[in-house]
Amino acid sequence: xxxxxxxxxxxxxxxxxxxxxxxxxxxxxxxxxxxxxxxxxxxxxxxxxxxxxxxxxxxxxxxxxxxxxxxxxxxxxxxxxxxxxxxxxxxxxxxxxxxxxxxxxxxxxxxxxxxxxxxxxxxxxxxxxxxxxxxxxxxxxxxxxxxxxxxxxxxxxxxxxxxxxxxxxxxxxxxxxxxxxxxxxxxxxxxxxxxxxxxxxxxxxxxxxxxxxxxxxxxxxxxxxxxxxxxxxxxxxxxxxxxxxxxxxxxxxxxxxxxxxxxxxxxxxxxxxxxxxxxxxxxxxxxxxxxxxxxxxxxxxxxxxxxxxxxxxxxxxxxxxxxxxxxxxxxxxxxxxxxxxxxxxxxxxxxxxxxxxxxxxxxxxxxxxxxxxxxxxxxxxxxxxxxxxxxxxxxxxxxxxxxxxxxxxxxxxxxxxxxxxxxxxxxxxxxxxxxxxxxxxxxxxxxxxxxxxxxxxxxxxxxxxxxxxxxxxxxxxxxxxxxxxxxxxxxxxxxxxxxxxxxxxxxxxxxxxxxxxxxxxxxxxxxxxxxxxxxxxxxxxxxxxxxxxxxxxxxxxxxxxxxxxxxxxxxxxxxxxxxxxxxxxxxxxxxxxxxxxxxxxxxxxxxxxxxxxxxxxxxxxxxxxxxxxxxxxxxxxxxxxxxxxxxxxxxxxxxxxxxxxxxxxxxxxxxxxxxxxxxxxxxxxxxxxxxxxxxxxxxxxxxxxxxxxxxxxxxxxxxxxxxxxxxxxxxxxxxxxxxxxxxxxxxxxxxxxxxxxxxxxxxxxxxxxxxxxxxxxxxxxxxxxxxxxxxxxxxxxxxxxxxxxxxxxxxxxxxxxxxxxxxxxxxxxxxxxxxxxxxxxxxxxxxxxxxxxxxxxxxxxxxxxxxxxxxxxxxxxxxxxxxxxxxxxxxxxxxxxxxxxxxxxxxxxxxxxxxxxxxxxxxxxxxxxxxxxxxxxxxxxxxxxxxxxxxxxxxxxxxxxxxxx
Amino acid sequence: xxxxxxxxxxxxxxxxxxxxxxxxxxxxxxxxxxxxxxxxxxxxxxxxxxxxxxxxxxxxxxxxxxxxxxxxxxxxxxxxxxxxxxxxxxxxxxxxxxxxxxxxxxxxxxxxxxxxxxxxxxxxxxxxxxxxxxxxxxxxxxxxxxxxxxxxxxxxxxxxxxxxxxxxxxxxxxxxxxxxxxxxxxxxxxxxxxxxxxxxxx
Lengths: 965, 202
Description:
The complex is a heterodimer. Chain A is mainly beta. Chain A has twelve helices and 49 strands.
């Protein structure tokens, strides 16, 4: 070919080998890029000038991304920025590259050995004309027409997100003028870092892609990003290493979010509320925030005490992890909220279903992960301050966070965060919900040391957190007999509610909860081996519950103290590749010791408890099966064991024996204390498969997964030894010392489609729980409800009994026009719960719910920018409605009152970020229960007595700063 | 760095402590009532007593029945005990001390009176015999008069009505009447005691 023939050049930033050569980077999963031996073409590109374009004199330059697998086979080709390119030229370039063959790219280890790796690179094809070449190209026109098998059809409108961040060098100094280029399948997004080292790339793609960062004097760096449509904004901190002739190695720091990792590891449905979604909902309780996810609802004791319900299960059947530490609190009580500071969350993840293998015993119904924001990487400091004000209850929150990496000690990252909240009683539309005040004071301290151990990156993090809250219980919520409950429900307003005022005062009844966590975690990353993580966590959960009592009594009526020491160790091996097949996985073990001390009105005993578990979980990935899809096959198994000793006062022990709840085998009485031992094994397995299909411009655009998972749950002490009146429900509860584990087996299907401006996700599940421990009314031998006559009334006896349960349901949603001027989001969730043995219905099953929201992503408002320098960016407006159906499936014997009526509740919000001020200021206004609707929530214990809160206006303001040293 | 990590750990371990679990507290200071004693004193003759007692506090009570004479008026005194405490604790005094927040309601199928309303089948009639500092009935002292021979339920509720944070009293002049029409759900406060005795009048 002559000078003006179609040319093949590879272009990636400033590093170029010229025509025919290429520059490529390993798609290594580890955070450290390695010296790469680029692939070499083993065949000539058959480049042909399209006849029509040639005839019309069309010229152009086409960037084509090429992905090779570890065998050197072309896995994928795609045109960059197809909308800007003549379609015929794009097809010609694609056709030529599809047919090319290459040697595999190789990575050279420090030891000097090489191994083949998959790569992605960009080819630049130039179509130019001169008189001689015109004739030559035209001769190959037929072959072009026949070579039209490509993965990518040019002309698709890509789905876009914003990538922004800052570029620094190894000493933390800002790097100005670094060029960032997306190495992806769709858009040749570029950005240049400006005077303060920051960059904004507004048109990055959704899906997995890589950004090349290039700057003279520095080694080129490649940052992998795995973005989701919901991400909208991905924040990166990039550190460039000086260019070095000896080792062409680049440090790349971009952590994959836990959500991404979990989604890859599991084939169960996993839903994520990313940083932006969390920010938009700040100030809500954890459970309230999570209700934005289809299939997640909440049980409530009032406005400030709520726990998440995942596909119909909650409390002891849903594991909550904060920063990877399993929250050990009093999650058995319906009236106990999760004891954690939700402001510490950067992102919230919900595993919608059994995940016993990965998360241990008790993860029967689901898992909630509260993930902190990553600590700072480069020298400097950043932080944010958030103010929240809520009209209803005059609630206010101030939250702050400061992250520092000292210039003199860049290996060290520090964080301090704290928030304080105070709220008065919240109001329903027609009256005040007396005494529903709330107070919270949370503090978190983190320090991370990032060093090396024998050359391997090593990170040790120490974290200490305190959550403290005083939460008022509505005066309206009273323990009454079932008959009174029915009458209370029929009252137009709670008795005496006309006297209740919006007060900040701490009044009985209320809960005072303090949860302390200390965590030390060490992570060692050994190249080509894997990640080893070891952690120790200490938690102390103190819960005091104060009832309205005689003035002579000062203390709480129920006081729980739970201390948990937990050790976790996990090893995650690097991807082992065998051609198109690769294996990732992890194995780990866990052990914990718990001490529980209870003081108060007769309820549950003290205990000491030891649990331990081991697990292994592997994912086999086969790429490009039949040229159609990638497949992940997941398998895992886990074994847990428990040994526990409960200490019962003699009187309580005698009561239980008399009732036949404890037998001579269960406990040994010595002196005035009975020791009740329990040792139980538990096993879980998981098997799943996920098919991933790529679409024209999005990797993994369609994912279909099927999962069979099991999980086992140990009985809690209340289930074994409870005796007493539940403080919030009119029954007399009795445990059964003979209970053993309950086990669930679940089949779930999920599908996720992300193409262009449309996304849809849907899941369906059926879950059988064998030996389900149900808390329900006990019947006499004559088949009548057993009644316990207590001094404060006659109450139905509720006991824990074993049955088999079946839960099934479906949930999902779609969004059309995400990020557009007008987008529509729809969510739907339905769940059914059956007691298989009796044919009855399970209580606390959420009603069918639907949610519709219109959201408008407006263009930036910069009319005043010229005059004031201030502009409003990313403005959004939204309005929506949530509708709950009437729960027609209810059992009058387990719930004494007809379920809550169907309801529709409207909401609206507006938000945007002011830039051009000394610091950017994000502002939002949200109105909840817009129409001040009177309604009752089926899963709120308030529903027997009072309406849900009325209209609430939420104002949120967040300002951030980032000051590199 | 390792040293400071250890220090943090040690500090955390110290602050968390180790709760003592092997020695369960039986009952700590709390508002526990396990027994109610009724004493019916006629103007002449021997007093009638009846007791409702659940000494273990676990829903397994011993309940006396009692017999009153038709046409006779009795002065009823009510006593509340915590038999789990050693020695047995008399809670009556504390209720007396907080008389503005408490009221005893006498009702049931065998009773007519303020809290029972009009009752064609009533065996006895109840009248309050004491008032608190706001001149509202308490019920620690009452008059019970046999009005018709037969049997019925004699129920006694001790209602605790502490004012809320705002200080507005919950106890009002119409508590008994409101209870007669709307039941327990129709009045404020919470139930400390709600017990039933079998009653006979002859």
